[in-house]
TrEMBL record:
Keyword Disulfide bond: no
Entry binding sites for S-adenosyl-L-methionine: 75, 80, 126-127, 141
Gene3D superfamilies linked to this entry: Vaccinia Virus protein VP39 (3.40.50.150)
Species in which this protein is naturally found: Leucobacter chromiiresistens
Gene: rsmG
Gene Ontology MF term list: rRNA (guanine-N7-)-methyltransferase activity
Protein's UniProt name: Ribosomal RNA small subunit methyltransferase G
Localization terms from the record: Cytoplasm
Top EC class of this enzyme: transferase
Length: 220
């Protein structure tokens, strides 16, 4: 698929979010659009809306990543949001946790081709890394419901570390269903952040994005 078709509307939003990394982001999106379906990374209907629905959607998290933070992205798949964030936030370090071999090969190839020195792939399920490392922030998109995602990710966070999960319109009911799990894992200050409002009102984004945001407080 030609790059022009992959990178369709709303280049303005991406430019605002990606700054001087926009060309690297475009290179990644073009390759994912061209090979993603064949590699089983994206569905057959996704290529034309890859840029807005997936790449820009992931980049919206960029302002919430701490300066110099160590971040684990769970279930990165074709690169969302972890690889996109590694592109636009070169100051932070990203561990891309993904169990599927083919997806890991794709991610490693992209890291090499795009020259990203701040991203590493760790093959495996999130729960296999409990006790292996602790990070400042965990991110995830389209992996599983909150009540399952919290037990998978909480043990990967340092005390005071933060969860940032891109979620859909069902986020409030997911929070309700996860209430016991949130308590058990000492998740505090849970809120839903609405991202991209300014860009949407400027006509640079079709819609806003919802993010579950909360911290782990083990002591105190
Ligand atoms: C629907 S895909 C979403 C991929 C990507 N996050 C996105 O938004 O396009 C879910 C991904 O989560 C991965 N996954 C499922 N369970 C996982 C677990 N326990 N730990 C880490 N990754 C997991 C799958 O292999 C798959 O790549």
């Amino acid at each position: 698929m030609p790059v022009e078709q992959v990178i369709e509307q709303e280049p303005g939003a991406a430019a605002v979010l990606a700054g001087d990394r926009i060309d690297v982001l475009r290179e990644f999106a073009a390759d994912l659009g061209a090979r993603g379906e064949e590699l089983g990374l994206i569905g057959p209907l996704e290529a034309p809306r890859l840029w807005t629905r997936h790449v820009v959607n992931s980049a919206l998290l960029a302002p919430l990543i701490g300066a110099g933070a160590r971040v684990a992205d769970i279930g990165t798949g074709g690169g969302m949001p972890g690889l996109v964030l590694a592109i636009v936030r070169p100051d932070a370090r990203f561990l891309l946790i993904e169990p599927m071999e083919r997806r890991c090969s794709w991610l490693s190839e992209q890291i090499e081709v795009l020259g990203l020195s701040n991203a590493e792939v760790r093959r495996g399920r999130a729960e296999e890394f409990h006790g292996a490392f602790e990070v400042d922030q965990v991110t995830a998109r389209a992996v599983t419901a909150l009540r399952k995602l919290v037990p998978l990710t909480a043990p990967l966070l340092r005390d005071g570390g933060e969860m940032l999960f891109l979620k859909g319109s069902s986020v409030e009911s997911e929070i309700e269903a996860a209430s016991k799990v949130l308590q058990k894992h000492r998740v505090r200050g849970a809120e839903v952040a609405e991202l991209g409002a300014e860009l949407a009102s400027d006509g640079l984004l079709a819609e806003t994005t919802r993010v579950f945001r909360a911290k782990i407080v083990r002591h105190g």
